[in-house]
Write a structure and sequence with these properties.
Blueprint (H helix, E strand, L loop, with lengths): L1 H11 L6 H28 L3 E3 L1 H14 L4 H13 L10 H4 L1 H16 L2 H7 L7 H7 L3 H16 L2 H24 L20 E2 L8 H6 L13 E2 H11 L3 E3 L6 E3 L8 H9 L1 H24 L3 E2 L2 E2 H9 L7 H12 L2 H16 L5 H16 L4 H11 L1 E3 L3
Parallel strand pairs: 2-3
Antiparallel strand pairs: 1-4, 5-8, 6-7
Helix pairs in contact: 1-9, 2-3, 2-4, 2-10, 3-9, 4-7, 6-10, 9-10, 14-15, 14-17, 14-19, 17-18, 18-19
Bound molecules: zinc ion (2 copies).
One zinc ion (ZN) binds next to helix 11.
Amino acid sequence: MMLDTLLRFAAHGLANAGWLAILLYILVTTQLTIFAVTLYLHRSQAHRGVDFHPVVAHVLRFWNWVGTGMVTKEWVAVHRKHHAHCETEQDPHSPQVAGIGKVFFEGAELYRTATANRADMEKYGRGTPNDWLERHVYTPHPYLGVSLLLVVDVLLFGVLGAAVWAVQMAWIPFWAAGVVNGLGHWWGYRNFETADTATNLTPWGVWVGGEELHNNHHAFPSSAKFALRKFEVDIGWIVIRGLEKVGLAKVLRVAPTLNERPNVALPDMETLKALLTHRFEAMTDYYKTVIKPTVREQSNAEGTRRFGAMPRRRLRRALANGGRWLDKTGKARLASIVENRPRLQQISEYRARLAALMEQRRPESALAALQQWCREAEASGNRKLVEFAARLKRYSVARA
Ligand SMILES: [Zn+2]
Ligand SMILES: [Zn+2]
């Protein structure tokens, strides 16, 4: 009799749930985990784009402990370091440096290696919770939460509960560490010509809570909202807005929008400010309206889609970032392609000068360089440059 009960429990658990119910349970709990990571750890703690009511913050923090076993301070530190040293040796998880295979399949190991650096945890993890719960429960017992979840899973579903738990545990390492950190710096589309390789994976950021819009996020890291184009949807932001409506969240920062003013003869401080704020958008505009059509014209004139060993697409991308992601051979190749083609040389030099003037420390010198840049572009005789300069002069930052 006793054995019978035990066997029945092992097979069905206390819930006696069907497949559909189990799948639904997995889906709800893993999505909750995704939200706990993107809303609490990422947007609120790491970037301070949004503040949550203590009740919401506690629920999300508790769920992180249960669903991932990650410590807030450690996650925040690893992530802030990723932004601070993107695509360099110092980046905890760059597919450009470590290789896409490594980041995709071993993202969780890279994360653990990064958290082992205690000095970094102190330096980048500042301002994260340090209350009684953190000091006595979450930080000293990171595995207790996930173990509790295992107990609950087994109680609910019997032996099958262990498999359910395995899926729950693999969710963040796979979707966040693998897909977002790996593919999100490697594959997808770009709205912004940022100094890293971050990409948007899909315009509908639903499955991993909006984190699919990773290029947008790198362009405006402290923005609580990741969707920046009309056709983009960020489910995390929808949740934030919902919480805000009922007084449970306060949005601290969203990405500013770029405005244009009529009749600006010469770039002024307003133009410069807008250019610096929207530098990635400006560089994308330059790519789309100057580089892309110029390369197309050049390729049509030469009657080929390849420039030596470099296909047209690759050349376009390389010109967009000054060949930053090419290896040594690639860089030499790019230089020799550009050298013999005055049109390409011209747009490549103008891009480099525009990028350089944004790095100037003194605003007065940056402004003088920008004015000079626009004057020369307008006198260059290159219609695409003339039109780009005319737009650039009108830039202004939208007032909220
Ligand atoms: Zn990133
Ligand atoms: Zn971030």
